[in-house]
Structure formats: C-alpha cells, structure tokens
C-alpha cells in the first residue's frame, strides 16, 4: 500500500473576506475530490482571508498510480486563475514507512 500526500500553499486573488475565501476554496476542493477520488480538505490558514492551505491524500497499491494522480491534482490547482500556487509539499509513504 502506498499513500501520497500533497499540501498546497495558495495565495488567493481579490478576496476581501472569509466568506469570499470559502467561495474560492470550496470549488477547488470539490473538483479535486470529484475528478480524482482523493481525500482533500482545507487544512490551514483558515483565519487568513487571502491565504489557504489545502491538503490531499491518495491511496493505491501502485506507486505509479499515486504519482500520476498527485501530478494531475497539482496541475489542476496550478491552472486555477483565481489562485497563485506558492508551494507544494509532496510525500510518498510505503509499507516500509510504518511499523
């Protein structure tokens, strides 16, 4: 079993409130979940209206599949015009990582 995780640090465009932030972040989270069947949520910077951290996890028996899904998710977020992708943290965990 392999688990891939991504953490996206995002700068939001013309957002002036937490309500506007939700209207930008929620569709991204929903699209990632719908298109790629990954577990995804806003996991940080909830109190800042122009920043967001989105965390994502994918599980598979094949490392190639995990890597492919993570690549597609990263491209989707990077292509969103309403956000600037500041950084991505990527990790791949295998059976040997856990005791």
UniProtKB/TrEMBL annotation:
What is one Pfam family matched by this protein? DUF503
- At the top level, the lineage of the source is Bacteria
Q: Which InterPro entries match?
A: DUF503, TT1725-like_sf
Extract the PANTHER family matched here.
Answer: DUF503 DOMAIN-CONTAINING PROTEIN, HYPOTHETICAL CYTOSOLIC PROTEIN
Which protein is depicted?
DUF503 domain-containing protein
């Amino acid at each position: 079993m392999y688990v891939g995780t991504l953490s996206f640090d995002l700068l939001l465009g013309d957002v002036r409130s937490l309500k506007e932030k939700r209207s930008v972040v929620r569709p991204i989270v929903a699209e990632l979940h719908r298109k790629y069947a990954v577990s995804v949520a806003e996991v940080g910077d909830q109190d800042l209206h122009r920043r967001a951290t989105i965390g994502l996890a994918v599980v598979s028996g094949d490392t190639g599949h995990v890597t492919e899904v993570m690549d597609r998710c990263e491209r989707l977020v990077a292509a969103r015009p309403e956000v600037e992708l500041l950084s991505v943290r990527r990790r791949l965990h295998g059976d040997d990582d856990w005791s």
